[in-house]
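Replying to the earlier thread about multi-chain prediction with a worked example.

Input:
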Amino acid sequence: MAEGSRTAFELWPALDHKSKQSVISAIAVDDAARYIYLGTSDGQLSEHRIQSTSSGLRVSLGARKHVGKKPVTAILHIAIAKKLAVVCDGSLLLLDYESLEEYTMPGLKGVTAIALDTAAGLQSRLAVAMRTSKRSVRVLVYEVVPGVGLGTQMHSQPAICLTQAELSEPLIVKAMAWLGKRIVLVTSLRYMLFDPITAAYSELFAVSPEAPPPTMVQAVPSVNQAVLLMDQVGIVTDEAGHPAQSALTFPSTPAALAASEIYVLAACADGVHVYDRTTAAWVQSLPYPDGLRTAPGQQLYTAHNPSGSVVLVAGYRRVWMLKPVALEDQARELLRACNYDQALRLAELCATEGAAWAEVAFAEAAFMLMQELRFREAMDALQHCSTLVVQPAELFPLFPDETRPWAGAADRTPSRPRWGLHPPLADLRSLVRQRLAADAAAEPLENGAGEDVERQLAAAARQCVAEYLLEVRQWEGVDFLDGVDTLLVRLLAGSRADWALEAFAAGPNEARLDLLRSPLAEVRRFHVLALLSSNHGDAAAALRLWRGIAEGSLDEAAGEDGEVAFAWEGGPAAAAIHRATALMLDENRVSESLALEYLPWLLASLPEESLIVLKGRELPAETVLPLLRRVSTELTSQYLEYLVCSKGSQDPAHHTELALSLAEAALRLMPPVDASLPAWERARAARERMAEDSAPAQRLRDVRDKLCGLLEESVLYDAQVVLQRCAKTELWDEQVVLHSKLEDHKAALRILALILGDIRLAEAYCARWAGQQGYLFLLDMLLHPGHSREPLYAEACHLLAAQGANVDATKVLDALSEDMPLSVAVDVLARMLRTAIHNRRSASITRNLHRSLHLSTAAERAELMQRSVVSTEERACRVCHTRISTKMFAVYPNGVLVCFKCYRQHGEASICPLTGRDFRLPEHPLPAL
Amino acid sequence: MADVGSIQQAKLVLLGDMGAGKSSLVLRFVKGQFFDYQESTIGAAFLTKTIPEKGVKFEIWDTAGQERYHSLAPMYYRGAAAAVVVFDITNAESFAKAKNWVKELQRQGNPNMIMALAGNKADLAAQRAVTTEDAKAYADENSLFFWETSAKTNVNVAEVFHDIAERLPRASAAPQPPVGGITLTETVPERTKKSACCS
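Result:
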């Protein structure tokens, strides 16, 4: 069998046209492939019934009709309309399918080609091309109406013209084919694409003058494609007229073309040649029986039904029928011939169209390829098979040692559809040896080389299978997943696919840990074993293994890739600790007691990692802290900081310990200072060093910021204890805060003013905490700094200038030292005294003004008291008009008299209840300025 | 690096005289193969090759160089984003044919088409009939980019295609929308005109 060849069609002689007066000039077949219609050169149309018998094919004449005097040039079967379209002598006739009653389409003369749009659904659109003059061609599109009878007695026309268009074309249209909604028009010199709706047309290409005739087109309606012929080349074009695939290269110029399924058939002089339209590959050649050949230049005719189940090829007198072999059978034949590429391509093509057998073909190909040790291709093929067709457990026989607990698993699964083209799968070692033996017979290997080759072949196969299993195990319906996963671990471990193995072990899987412990231990893959243990809920075992790796008691195999080899510079130990840390963070998998059991190891191995665990999960601080204190004060401090700042611990001991540890850390970081220097100079030196732009200075700043922040914000620590530690150190800022907490403002101010020399801060401190007394303390300190220091007059003056007005001047004067030079303080004191005098005078003026106001009010009152009111018996209240008589009454300044009852009810003594006048306002308001 | 998810398709056509080495160039680029006796292409062959790092999938049409198939060429270069015109540096006539192809593309091809001129068989420099300078000067005159290639020794083959991939406009590198061909209708209806203009 030639490469790529297969039996795609079988050729049968269908009938002989035995007339001596005429030859076949047209042919058609009905949709159901029950009738052949022959047109002959003497204008006859005959109908032949096809019958399949056990011995082959029997075709018998059914009916014959004379439709014209010239040759019948075209016949089309219009199934929906139950009609035949026949072209004879340039006329178009429509014949009833059953009675062969004919109707000549009026006005159609010079018809040269017709084409039926079989993709138009329930419509039957028939395109007709006719010559109208020497320079023009007309293309009409009819809808052939179903159910309308033919004959003169019927008034209705059996076809309605939908569109017609005139083309400027000197040559006749020899052939036509629908291509989607457009029509390919073929003349002897060119191919055109014509849109019957817009009447626009364009040239696809011109036929080369060197190219021999004929020109023709074959539609492939199922995919909206057409095959255009030029010379011996068939150009497959898509709906837009663009080439869709490599050109079909026929052995000679075909006399006719046909299409069936994925094939294009070219009827040539020596026989029919079959090509795969999707790949442009030659598939089969079927010579005409009895060594027949057509005469040079002889016309051949083809016809096929829309489903492609029958293709007819006719010469002058003989008709042959080509019946397609089922694609499934073709695939099977290709596989039998070990033509895997072609078989797989065919299966792939049919799989996209939903052919159920395609998966079986893939499976068969895969198992056959495995026999040939072509595992890469085999596994690629298996990827196309669902678990309904192939179960991964079917590969277990390849690895009997690794899959012993599932021996015979594949046999226990329900039977799967197969073609039985391959023997049962042997174990991989046997397969490799068989292959090597076969190869060695052809080409013997050097001594010792065989083992290497065997090992390499087996390793390659294992790798391919592992990759397949990794993919397929995620699919639905996988049986024996535990076996698949267990095998997968063994294969990956054996092929040193470390990353894949570690990822698999760390992910969800059903590998049997009990079966993997020994094999993995044998190959020293403890890290993977730990990952699997961790994944399967045995955290204790996982941690034990990782501790063993880290401590060196378990000798982890050196890897080429994977976590152990590359992820961390520290090698297996680092990888183990990293994974252990991640596991210990998981509170659901690692209990508190287990975590505490491994915490000391983690602390000793990699303290930084352990801190991640401490911060990432709940562990009792009272247990953790003693462990930490033994390891590192730094870590203790960090953990305490986490407890206090992040967890919000309310335990005063934590706050105090954190403050003390921060203080210790700060003191450790502080550069040594000359203890013989006075405190203020030591403080200045320390400040200068801390302000340096260096990493140690930055670290110190950070620690002290944290410490000060804690001391200021927390109220839980024991300030006395912390102060005890900070005293006599250079932690002056911290001491200020601590003194402040202990309300020893004087001490705080002393540090601020005399040691740190920061008067502004001292002032701010006074404003916030110490009040006026604080200012006086501060002033006193500045004037009497002690330690033989000169009074700080400038600072004192600054303090007075800023705060002097608010402080009692006499107290200030009392506080001022007699030694203080007047010239230094005169300005400040003068301003302070001026302010004091000003304040005193202002107060005096204000007092006198108030006194004056009081006097004038008293005078007005006295005047009003002197007024007399005369009341008679008739005098009535101006509000309620009740006689006053002897009752109590009230008189408003405007003379309105009301009874006491109304006065009380009115409430507002300063507003007249009658006029509403407000006596508090001046009687005659001043004009607005 | 281009986003793997946004691979754009680009139609590329190879044109040139018979025997210039079009099929050999494509085979070398797509399959890494070379045959001393490469069969003459009949009609046209279609191959694809994806350059993931450039985010381009080339749909390559390797046309036949024989004169009798010249009339088919418009079908293949119509709507192409790029064309490689190939000539044989040992054959001056093939260089002349290449110039004709360039003229035809300039006249009838996609105006935005990227054109490369490939002087193939650079391994046969001893039998050179077209100087590099002449070819380069011609390429510069016509805004083509020029490479001397050898499919046999695999010199500059991938470079030609990578160069094209680099120059493809990202938005229009995909195959052009279907254009039915050259409109021949003399009295084109108004509706058709609009459609052609907007297409």
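Confidence is low (pLDDT under 50) at residues 172-199 of chain B.

Feel free to reuse this layout for your own posts.
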